[in-house]
Each structure stands twice: as C-alpha cells, then as structure tokens.
From TrEMBL:
<dbReference type="InterPro" id="IPR013785">
    <property type="entry name" value="Aldolase_TIM"/>
</dbReference>
<dbReference type="InterPro" id="IPR013798">
    <property type="entry name" value="Indole-3-glycerol_P_synth_dom"/>
</dbReference>
<comment type="pathway">
    <text>Amino-acid biosynthesis; L-tryptophan biosynthesis; L-tryptophan from chorismate: step 4/5.</text>
</comment>
<keyword id="KW-0028">Amino-acid biosynthesis</keyword>
<comment type="similarity">
    <text>Belongs to the TrpC family.</text>
</comment>
<keyword id="KW-0210">Decarboxylase</keyword>
<keyword id="KW-0822">Tryptophan biosynthesis</keyword>
<keyword id="KW-0057">Aromatic amino acid biosynthesis</keyword>
<protein>
    <recommendedName>
        <fullName>Indole-3-glycerol phosphate synthase</fullName>
        <ecNumber>4.1.1.48</ecNumber>
    </recommendedName>
</protein>
<dbReference type="InterPro" id="IPR045186">
    <property type="entry name" value="Indole-3-glycerol_P_synth"/>
</dbReference>
<keyword id="KW-0456">Lyase</keyword>
<dbReference type="InterPro" id="IPR001468">
    <property type="entry name" value="Indole-3-GlycerolPSynthase_CS"/>
</dbReference>
<dbReference type="Pfam" id="PF00218">
    <property type="entry name" value="IGPS"/>
</dbReference>
<dbReference type="InterPro" id="IPR011060">
    <property type="entry name" value="RibuloseP-bd_barrel"/>
</dbReference>
<feature type="domain" description="Indole-3-glycerol phosphate synthase">
    <location>
        <begin position="5"/>
        <end position="259"/>
    </location>
</feature>
C-alpha cells in the first residue's frame, strides 16, 4: 500500500515539523488538562455493537478521491444530526491539505454533542497524539501502512497513556498480522484501495476471519446502505465507519437513522 498514502504522509511530516515549533508536548499536555476527560470511544462502540449495529459517523468536507463533498459544511450541526440519528461515535477529519479538515471542526463537533470523537488524520509522530488530546479527541487513527512497527507502537503508547483509544486500520493480510502485535483490539478494515481509490466491501469479508481474538472489527469506507451493513454483518462486522454517503444527504439525521435501521 503506497502512492497517495505516501504522498499524504510526506506532506504530513513537513506540516508536523513546522507545527512543532509552536508547542512542545508539555505545552499540549498542559492544554489537554483543560479539556474534559476522554469519553470512552471503544467502550461506546462495544456497548452499541453488543445490541445491534454501531456507527462511527464521519464529518468529512472533502476527500482526495471526490473533491468537495459537502458545500454547506457545518460540523456542529452535523454532529447533532449524527447523534440524534443514532451514531455511537464521531470521526472528524482534521487534515487540511487533502481533506479540507481543521482542528476547530473537531472541537466544535465534540462540544455540540455527547459522543466520543476520533481525530481522523495521518499520525506520523507522537507529537500529534498530544495535539489530538489537546483538541479534545477521545481516540486516534493508526494507519498500519503508514508506519513501521516501532513508531506504530510508540504512537499507540502515547495515546493509551493519555487515556485515548486507537482505531488500528489495515488494508491487507500482512497489515492485519502487524496490527495483531499491538495492544489495541479495535481494528478497522479499510475497504478503499488507496492506489486506485476504488472501494470493495469484499476486503472486510476477506480479512475479518484473520482478526485476533477479542477484536471489535470496524468496516470502513464505501458503505452506502443498510443492505451493506447486513451484508458485512454476515462476516462478523457490527461496527462501521461511514462518511461520504451520509455527508451527501440533505437530511443527515434521517439518513443516519435509515442507514442503521433500514427504515
Ligand atoms: O476518502 C478518501 O478519498 C481517502 C483517500 C486517501 C486516504 C484516505 C481516504 N479516506 C479516509 C477514510 O478512511 C474515509 O474517510 C472513511 O473510511 C469514510 O469513508 P467513506 O464512507 O467512503 O467516506
């Protein structure tokens, strides 16, 4: 897995190097003490998945594959709509160059609702983990394809010591094997092939049996309907990360409810 992801991570390393000049990890940890404690991202998903489908609803303005997705982008309103529609957690993109994200979107969304929030970004440095907590994030994303084993474990440790959860994202069998060596047991299979930008729900079906014991499996990307949730549940996935198909709907609350219930 390389290409676009490599390009995004190279850009991210440059961005982080520049941002580090403005705040040390100690500064960020100090700022984090003024934030509310982590809300329990994984626990919220596990409790919802025990009784049905658990949704991580994504607040996504744009993407490298589709450009602008939501012209009338209002993160706080979308957060409330997702919560009312039945989402268990939120995902908020904070990457600016490729997704038009911003840390303010995460802070505004989290302040508007009671849901736990994952900072959806490309983690390449432990500094970003402290930054995530300082902006209020309850969880971070670890993209296995973007990191070596040592850095991946350091980023996970930095999140766990701050009380945050990690969603560990994989795209293939080798990455599932590497993910299984981490402590976290919240593993996401990304159905999007980052070389060709096509999505295939079959990726989750192929990798689901390889997840280590105790895993809460999350199927990510390219999910459009309740029928997709039903199909994916047959391979054991009861937790889903959905962005574009919900963000394109005029009534986000209604669309979220329809996705979860089929009604
Ligand atoms: O969304 C993209 O085009 C993309 C491109 C390159 C790297 C990552 C990308 N997406 C990040 C995500 O993981 C998705 O935003 C998330 O899984 C939701 O997917 P979707 O429901 O298809 O919007």
């Amino acid at each position: 897995m390389a290409d676009k992801l490599t390009e995004i991570c190279d850009t991210k390393r440059e961005e982080v190097a520049a941002r580090k000049g403005f705040a040390t990890i100690a500064d960020l940890d100090d700022r984090a003490t003024q934030e509310s404690a982590p809300r329990g991202f994984e626990a919220a998903l596990r409790s919802r998945a025990a009784n049905g489908f658990a949704l991580i609803a994504e607040i996504k303005k744009a993407s490298p594959s589709k450009g602008l997705i939501r012209p009338d982008f209002r993160p706080a309103e979308h957060a409330v709509a997702y919560e009312r529609g039945g989402a268990a957690c939120l995902s908020v993109l904070t990457d600016a160059p490729y997704f038009q994200g911003h840390e303010d979107y995460l802070m505004d969304a989290r302040a508007a609702c009671r849901l736990p929030v994952i900072r959806k970004d490309f983690m390449v440095d432990t500094w970003q983990v402290a930054e995530a907590r300082a902006m209020g994030a309850d969880a971070i994303l670890i993209i296995v394809a973007a990191l070596d084993d040592v850095l991946m474990a350091e980023i996970e440790a930095a999140a766990l010591e701050r009380g945050m959860d990690c969603l560990v994202e994989v795209h293939d069998e080798a990455e599932m094997d590497r993910a299984s060596r981490l402590k976290s047991r919240l593993i996401g299979v990304n159905n999007r092939d980052l070389k060709r930008f096509v999505t295939d729900l079959g990726t989750t079906e192929r990798l689901a049996p390889l997840a280590p014991d105790g895993t809460l499996l999350v199927s990510e990307s390219g999910i459009n309907s309740h029928a997709d949730l039903q199909r994916l549940s047959r391979c054991g996935a009861r937790t889903f990360l959905v962005g574009e198909s919900l963000m394109r709907q005029p009534d986000v609350e209604l669309a979220t409810r329809a996705l979860l219930t089929g009604i």
